[in-house]
Design a protein that fits this description.
seven-stranded mixed β-sheet; about 50% helix; Rossmann fold; 12 strands; alpha/beta; about 450 residues; binds NADPH dihydro-nicotinamide-adenine-dinucleotide phosphate
Amino acid sequence: MEFKNAYLKKVYEKVEARNPGEKEFLQAVKEVLESLEPVVEKDKSYETNGIIDRIVEPERLIQFRVSWVDDNGNVQVNRGFRCQFNSAIGPYKGGLRLHPTVCASVIKFLGFEQIFKNSLTGLPIGGGKGGSDFDPKGKSDGEVMRFCQSFMTELSKHIGADTDVPAGDIGTGAREIGYMFGQYKRLRNEFTGVLTGKGLSYGGSLARTEATGYGCCYFTDEMLKCMKNESFKGKTVVISGSGNVAIYATEKATQLGGKVVALSDSNGYIYDANGINLDVVKQIKEVERGRIKEYCNRVEGAEYHEGCSGIWNIPCDIALPCATQNELNGSAADTLIKNGVIAVAEGANMPCTPDAAEKFVEAGVLFGPAKAANAGGVATSALEMSQNSERLSWTFEEVDAKLKDIMVNIFHNSYNASKEYGHEGNLIFGANIAGFLKVADAMKWQGVAY
Ligand code: NDP
């Protein structure tokens, strides 16, 4: 799609010129700006206040060296990042990704998306993201600890409970958050809610581990109910990935009456026609940190297939991509549509390529974009921040009930915005617009200092 609005066209061309080769970042910016055409057409003050020019430029992008010593006594050097994208509505908030593919483009795309996602939760949190090209896979606990401590030694200068509160993401789970929190406390001599996703014994929130996967299913259930008078009951579900988001999406989809038949990792996927036995998956992935193919050695009748993209050939009613960006392309979308999929919701960030998303929308498949469908994780992180500030812990049921309310509201706010701006039912438009309006309003009130 080409921009019809001259202001948006000009801004996007400048973003392209300023960020050459940053394909993930450009993809994310383009998708959001396309959705904002009816908004900037209707209200010229976004242009006169330079809101779009400003919202596409991070307030701050920090890049730093992370050196650490491996188990053989060799010095290793990784690159660390923190992108503090937008603080108009609250302290920067967003996860830390540890994966070899991490670079400025990936961190900026994630930070940019986070602005709108965090706004959609209705909670006071700005947008940020960070990480490193360090790969925790195959590293010993000692190596992971030394890396995390070195990473936090620099990051601690830039974050704080009222400034910037990082969390987990790919490769950053409870173990990594624990090592980082310990190092922050050691360096600053203060016990504050500077990170979320913490262990329950030192300020973590119940239901945070489950939140992104559960939230994605609450969103999907509401979308099915309101747009198709349907639910998870009796539906066949395919979920990609087998990390934090995929595991808890599987748990909630099953509780809501669906049958999850497939999961994957970056090597391949498993198919279990009887429905995935999640206890086995949790043992392999959460306890043993093993590979998903191991499932077939433990569950009779299950199949393993090499290559992760084949998972989308499995016929299903509901598909939840929960692994990584651009994992579901146009031809996978064609196959899913041909096989009769009725709903797709993004548990991962930007897992569907733009042409895949467009195909789903055109075919009338219900489509929940990431910034709406996976906002449950960051929403619950914000609830963890509230509990830390109060120095209280809420029950699992209390947090889960709040999470459900938030996801239901995100669906309705996105749906209503899609209707108000002339694209009824297109939740890509709806989520981008609903997320944008609050941030833009706050930016207008706060003036043009940065
Ligand atoms: P994890 O590291 O726990 O799990 C990621 C999973 O995806 C692993 O099973 C990994 O397999 C798999 N994977 C990676 N690349 C591919 C691929 N190309 N095809 C299939 N599987 C693949 O991460 P999370 O579950 O936390 O995050 C998953 C996604 O959800 C990310 O996009 C993240 O940004 C997003 N997200 C996460 C939130 C959270 O609360 N955790 C919140 C909001 C969004 P392998 O072991 O082989 O690498």
